[in-house]
Design brief:
It is a single chain. With 306 residues, this protein is mainly α. The chain has two domains: 46-249, no CATH class; 262-305, no CATH class. Helix content is 72%, strand content 0%. The protein has helices at 3-39, 47-63, 69-77, 80-108, 110-133, 148-151, 181-196, 200-219, 225-255, 265-272, 277-292, 298-305. The longest helix is centred in the N-terminal third of the chain and has 37 residues, at 3-39.
Length: 306
């Protein structure tokens, strides 16, 4: 093996492992999304119960003096220049922006990616449990509200069933208003951008985007203010559960007996055959680390081969 090939071998192994991990992450996120879309078809109660819960939520908000749904919905529904862009935002941004932030976090901040992804997935699973336990009709189903996506459906790909494409409304659960994952995912995106982005514009977007999501979901008649608060709550719960689960896993791993992973002798011997001892030892050390994270030094590895 030439000196150049010996230097490149660990790099090739790292790239291969990175690509394999990327595909695993993509498969995991795809599975969670599939679970999300399928589980939302389920409901733990009847349509009457969901409508009763909706009236109870509005009554509770009015009792607290926090019920912006009706006037904000009327403000949007009467103005095409507000309603149509908001409909497009509701139908697409929670997918597009969330996926973009996930990819950015993976590529630019790999150390923060794992905790961020775990929090996002856990919060989504908690939200699915909420859909099952508390069926809730959105405001657009109540008297006095306007379904902006139905009114301006001719301007987009959606039909009269929230953000579902035309003809696919039967494949969605219309009674899954609480919590709002539009808001929960938006807060997660804003949190990651604020913590890890270096540019001021990106961090500003991280602040503005969750606020925009709250206004959009209420203005289009798809969620209550309480749903937005619940979106924040499930994200916080997801973060707590993630930290707790990670701590338990680390304790479990520390309790396991360590077993070193052997490095293939042929790879080390190929590296140690280089003519320059210093480079051979350094390259052998890289091979040892790539092969299993052992603490064997390049000098020890090459001495063993001799």
């Amino acid at each position: 093996m030439s000196e150049h090939e010996a230097r490149e071998s660990p790099r090739v192994d790292v790239r291969t492992a990175t690509h394999a991990r990327a595909w695993r992450e993509l498969a995991l996120l795809g599975a969670v999304y599939l679970l999300y879309t399928q589980t939302r078809l389920l409901t733990g109660g009847s349509h009457e119960q969901a409508m009763s819960n909706a009236r109870a939520v509005l009554k509770a908000e009015r009792g607290l003096g926090l019920a912006p749904e009706r006037w904000l919905n009327h403000l949007f529904s009467a103005r095409q220049y507000l309603a149509i862009p908001s409909d497009y935002a509701y139908a697409s941004l929670h997918y597009v922006v969330t996926l973009a932030v996930v990819i950015w976090l993976w590529r630019a901040h790999p150390r923060a990616y794992l905790a961020g992804r775990r929090t996002l997935v856990t919060a989504t699973l908690v939200a699915l449990l909420g859909y099952w336990l508390l069926p809730l009709a959105p405001p657009r189903m109540l008297p006095g509200f306007v379904d902006t996506m139905a009114r301006y459906g001719g301007y987009g790909w959606w039909g009269d069933s929230a953000s579902a494409p035309k003809g696919l409304g039967a494949l969605t659960n219309q009674l899954a208003a609480m919590p709002s994952l539009h808001v929960g995912w938006a807060i997660w995106c804003g949190w990651q951008l604020w913590r890890h982005a270096k540019h001021g514009i990106s961090r500003t977007f991280g602040v503005v985007y969750p606020l925009l999501a709250v206004v959009v979901v209420i203005g289009t008649g798809n969620h209550y203010l309480a749903d937005a608060v619940a979106g924040l709550v499930v994200l916080l719960v997801g973060g707590v559960l993630t930290r707790f689960g990670t701590s338990l896993w680390r304790r479990f791993r520390r309790a396991l007996p360590e077993s070193p992973v052997p490095v293939p002798e042929q790879r080390v011997s190929d590296v140690c055959s280089l003519t320059k001892p210093g480079r051979a030892q350094a390259s052998a050390a890289r091979v040892a680390r790539a092969g299993g994270g052992t603490t064997t030094t390049g000098h020890d590895a090459c001495a063993t081969q001799r």
